[in-house]
Design goal:
- This protein is of the alpha/beta class.
- The protein has 5 helices and 8 strands.
- It has a single domain, classed as YbaK protein (Alpha-Beta Complex), CATH 3.90.960.10.
- Strands 1, 2, 3, 4, 5, 6, 7 and 8 form an 8-stranded mixed beta sheet that branches.
- Strand 2 and strand 3 form a beta hairpin.
- The protein is globular, with a radius of gyration of 14 Å.
- About 40% of the residues are buried.
- InterPro entries: YbaK/aa-tRNA-synt-asso_dom_sf, YbaK/aa-tRNA-synth-assoc-dom.
Length: about 150
């Protein structure tokens, strides 16, 4: 599986343990992932891709939060809009439901939900709707180079 391999290689290149696990029950949504992993929905670090012109903006958010696009735009200085699944796959190399925070096929502007910083461990998608990897919020910041920001919809 090429996308999962890209995530594995990105983790390895960053000296992060290969903590990728597969779950036959699926991890497509935050609720599915939490049920599969056996953690709280908030501990799922969901990756949402927005579109700023032709550039992807990745927000890694707590699974229990909805994202406020106005806050994302304010922090990045970019006008962001939802991205359709075909565009997400074309740009990042990941299908919606398996978008990882690392291993993208292109450069991405990344924000990390400030609410994730209080949780440990967190689980993030690893390239498919059935794969996740265990990490910490601090490692997500290190791995992605993302800025920590308040992106939660109030």
């Amino acid at each position: 599986m090429e996308a999962v391999d890209r995530v594995r290689e990105a983790l390895k290149a960053a000296d992060h343990p290969d903590s990728i696990a597969a779950f036959e029950s699926g991890t497509r949504s935050a609720a599915d992932a939490a049920a599969s992993v056996g953690c709280d929905v908030a501990q799922i670090a969901k990756s949402i891709i927005f579109r700023a012109g032709d550039e992807p903006v990745l927000v890694v958010a707590s699974g229990s939060n909805r994202i406020d696009r106005k806050k994302v735009a304010a922090v990045t200085g970019l006008a962001v809009k939802p991205a359709d699944p075909a565009w997400v796959q074309e740009k990042t190399g990941f299908a919606v439901g398996g978008v990882a925070p690392v291993g993208h096929a292109c450069g991405v502007t990344t924000l990390i939900d400030a609410d994730l910083m209080a949780l440990d461990p967190v689980w993030a998608a690893a390239g498919s709707p059935m794969h996740v990897f265990r990490t910490t919020p601090q490692e997500l910041v290190r791995l992605t180079g993302g800025a920590v920001a308040d992106v939660r919809q109030d």
